Amino acid sequence: MVVTERESLSGSWALILGASSGFGAAVALELARKGMNIFGVHLDRSSTLPRAQALVGEIEGMGRKVQFFNTNAASAERRAEVLEAVQQRLQEEGDGRKIRVLFHSLAFGSLGEFIADDPRKAIKQSQLEMTLDVMANSLVYWTQDLVGRDLFEPDSRIFAMTSSGSHRVWASYGAVSAAKACLEAHVRQLAVELARKRITVNAVRAGVTDTPAARAIPGYEKLAHEASTRNPMGRMTRPEDVAAAVGALCDPGTYWMTGNVLGVDGGEDNMG
Questions:
Q1: Domain count, the chain
Q2: Rounded Cα distance, 130 and 109, in Å
Q3: Contact present, 98 and 151 (Cβ < 8 Å)
Q4: 78 domain-assigned
Q5: In this structure, are residues 128 and 62 in contact, taking their beta carbons and an 8 Å threshold?
Q6: Does a structural domain hold residue 2?
Q7: Domain range spanning residue 49?
Q8: What is the mean pLDDT of each run of 10 residues along the chain (272 residues)?
Q9: Complete DSSP assignment for 47-90
């Protein structure tokens, strides 16, 4: 296949949900290295905001255009505001470029037991619903609105971060586990419905990775140790491993891959 200028990533835009740390930050940098401009949505307080600002500076240092939004990506109102700003920016650029990659890495949810010795400490309905909405359903909402605004380029890619928690059990991880399983179901459905628009949708299943979200899991130290021991590669997954894979999967030659859960874990999940 001969890659034309329009088919190449250079000059197109990526929209990264969860852009300021972990997988989102690594993917933003990788796609910027490949010539893409970056829209990023993140939610940072004053204590962690410098991290996002440093990332913006690094992307600008590559000569790329970048615009970050520090807002709640799970809010319908905030989502509309971001997409209005994105649409206006693309119109102002005037080169016909739109969103080529949507990367979903929202990792805000509740951790806790479904059945606790003290019923007052068991996870609440509101917490379970919030976790599912933020970590799974939001993929559908963002995709619907991007399609509705005609903001995707042809041959676009959508990626959503999942984990082995979608089919494994870990203490206090039940709500997030359910969200990951739901996310994978959404990926399959979106892949079928978007095929006619030449938009592929895949989930990326990383191995256990040292990210701010992972460190919030109760018993993370044990989880990390077991992953390092179990992984055939002899170490944990790194955000950069996932970013490199996502960058490769943006190649035009991957147009026939859609509706999958793609393991990027060094073979960790195969080891039981």
A1: 1
A2: 7
A3: yes
A4: yes
A5: no
A6: no
A7: 13-265
A8: 56 96 96 97 91 96 98 97 98 96 94 91 95 97 98 96 86 90 98 97 92 83 85 92 97 96 91 68
A9: TTHHHHHHHHHHHHHTT--EEEEES-TT-HHHHHHHHHHHHHHH
Other residues' Cβ atoms within 10 Å of the Cβ of residue 230: 18
Would residue 3 count as lying in a domain? no
pLDDT in tens, 101-130: 999 999 888 989 999 999 989 999 999 999
CATH no. for residue 235? 3.40.50.720
Separation CA 65–CA 56 (nearest Å): 9
Measured CA to CA, the distance from residue 254 to residue 248 in angstroms comes to 9
Task: Supply 230's token pair.
Answer: 């179990």
* CB within 8 Å of 51: residues ≥ 6 apart: 20, 21, 25, 44
pTM for the model: 0.93
Sorted by sequence, the CB contacts under 8 Å of residue 219 that are 6+ apart come out as 170, 171, 172
21 phi, psi to nearest 5 deg: -155, 175
